[in-house]
Write a structure and sequence with these properties.
Distance between the termini: 22 Å
CATH topology: Arc Repressor Mutant, subunit A
CATH superfamily: Winged helix-like DNA-binding domain superfamily/Winged helix DNA-binding domain
Number of domains: 1
Number of strands: 2
Order of helices and strands: HHHHEEHH
Radius of gyration: 15 Å
CATH architecture: Orthogonal Bundle
CATH class: Mainly Alpha
């Protein structure tokens, strides 16, 4: 993958997260794990109107940070852990001048 594409993806993801409600929604989906959350349960948990949440979920989805799946009459939103980990890797790939450092505990690296 070329550098410009990777940088564009990073900027898109960071831009999507650079808003309080979207950051809160993404973090709630990370906590929910692979089970994900329906928009109604997420809206209730975040105390945000469903219409506003829809706008934020669309931005997160466009940035590749969340996925959505139909399950009967419900939509299930999930954090895109692979994309999240790619972003974290990109942001930290050159930290500590290539030496091992304690920025991220080993246990945290294996959680996703």
């Amino acid at each position: 993958m070329n550098t410009v594409h990777v940088e564009t993806q990073a900027v898109d993801a960071l831009s999507a997260l650079a808003q309080v409600q979207r950051l809160r929604a993404f973090r709630a989906l990370v906590v929910a794990g692979e089970d994900g959350l329906t928009p109604s349960s997420l809206a209730s948990q975040l105390e945000i109107a469903p219409s506003g949440l829809s706008f934020h979920l669309k931005a997160l989805s466009h940035a590749g940070l969340v996925s959505v799946e139909s399950s009967g009459r419900n939509l299930i939103y999930r954090a895109a852990f692979t994309r999240m980990n790619e972003l974290l890797t990109y942001l930290t790939q050159d930290c500590c001048q290539g030496q091992s450092c304690a920025v991220v505990p080993e246990a945290a690296k294996a959680c996703c």
